[in-house]
Hints:
Blueprint: H1 3-13, E1 29-33, E2 39-45, E3 48-51, H2 58-66, E4 75-80, H3 86-94, E5 100-104, H4 108-117, E6 129-132, H5 137-147, E7 152-157, H6 159-164, H7 166-211
Parallel strand pairs: 4-5, 4-7, 5-6
Antiparallel strand pairs: 1-2, 2-3
Helix pairs in contact: 2-3, 5-7
Amino acid sequence: MSLYAKNLEALKKRGMLIPNFPEIYEKRIFTDTAKNGMPTLRIRTGGRDKYIHSKFDPKSEAEKWAGSLEFKEDSVIIIFGCGLAYHARAALNILGSDNQAFIIEPDAEIAQLMLKTVDISDILEDERLSFVLSGDIQARLFEIIKKEDKKRVATAVLPIYNELFTDKASLFLKAARDVIQFHEINKNTAILRAAIWHRAFFSIVPCIGGSVGWSVL
């Protein structure tokens, strides 16, 4: 089984959406080898080459970044940007047992290269980590936040993604804020309605108790 097929099988086993990658007519992202021998990604943009990961030590760079994250108890973090999953792996290493991390990769070419270049099947065995490699970002955010509605939600953007995908990163942060706010409003409305129903019910309990035997209820 090829590395690509192995990763797709791991995604499928976890019930994650399998991307339908478009055909690439003009290659703009390339895999290089960093000084420490690990693969890294180079993207050609605006006539210049930029690296998505360190040219020297991608693993240490990701671990340093992950060390700046704060995970509160029973919380979810949604990370914009995946690359070759160094940051996802580093984040997983510091997640608590009650934390969840969702990794969103907005670029189809990068997602495809990641699946063909690095083995992520091992980290996909951990239920705390999920990849979002396809679908409408706002719709997927709503699914995530609705599913994890009892947890606090935080967002993070890989630094280079702010530079390379400025518009998409801004849209992601705006969509995340909007979805979180919308969900909180709905949740608070549901809580308010429940409280009103609770007060109304107990306001008539004496009447019920006086007219019908509790053994009947």
